[in-house]
Amino acid sequence: MFLLLPIYSLSISTFPVLLTCLPPWEFSVVGSVDRKLSDLERSVSNLTESVSLHLSKLHEKVGNLETKLSDLKRSVLNMTERVSFHSSKLPKKVGCPDGWNLHNSSCYFFSAYQASWYTARDSCRSMDATLLILTDEEEWVFVNIMSVGRPFWLGLSDERTGEWEWVNESPYIMNRSKWMPGQPDNWAGHSIGGTEDCAHITSGKLNDNHCTVAYTFICKARPAPN
Ligand SMILES: *[C@@H]1O[C@H](CO)[C@@H](O)[C@H](O)[C@H]1NC(C)=O
Ligand SMILES: *[C@@H]1O[C@H](CO)[C@@H](O)[C@H](O)[C@H]1NC(C)=O
Ligand SMILES: *[C@@H]1O[C@H](CO)[C@@H](O)[C@H](O)[C@H]1NC(C)=O
Ligand SMILES: *[C@@H]1O[C@H](CO)[C@@H](O)[C@H](O)[C@H]1NC(C)=O
Ligand SMILES: [Ca+2]
Predict the structure, then answer these.
(1) Residue 1 domain-assigned?
(2) Which N-terminal residues, if any, form the signal peptide (predicted)?
């Protein structure tokens, strides 16, 4: 019979009456919407929280990475500095003049022309070099190979004192196994007179000969920095 009341006559006080008159399934629908809404709100706020948590963690990580990156940049810079410092102390790349052989950080000149021992000595000097003084076995081996089949004057003579010495006046220590059999013999049969006071090497063996004989010769020089 209340359904017959005109709309305007519905006062606030009539609503509870109205609601209480709603069928029970309507109540459960409103309640579940409410619950769903608050669940949604909770999960949105949970999500917001976890997003902001992740964001702050991300910021932290980015910060750490930036620190590591700048550390890395610094150490690369440091390393670069140290490499260039050390490489400036490395021996310079060396070069020999054209026509000279580079061997174990020295330059060797094997002349194509022949000259007396004296001229050979002076030619080497005029090229800021020395008629060859052999100092170690390794160098002997090199010269043995290079002197195959051809005599070369060395900076070795006994003319000055009667004792074999190098051209820089350092003593030569006799090693007979480096001489040809029966040498040095100081042979005196040369038609020009005199004996044999200068040493040459041929195929790795030494012999004394008259210093005026014309032979090819070997000069040795320090390499020039490029
Ligand atoms: C919020 O999220 C965490 C982990 O993701 C979960 O264990 C927790 O139950 C959630 N809380 C709510 C109210 O959804
Ligand atoms: C560069 O590295 C060396 C050795 O690791 C260290 O002693 C030096 O302090 C560093 N210099 C700079 C400018 O970081
Ligand atoms: C190079 O020469 C040095 C100095 O004369 C010598 O000690 C060294 O054994 C030589 N090394 C080589 C590989 O020729
Ligand atoms: C003498 O020369 C030989 C042959 O080159 C060499 O093997 C030996 O070590 C040398 N001896 C000395 C004491 O230098
Ligand atoms: Ca001789």
Answers:
(1) no
(2) 1-21
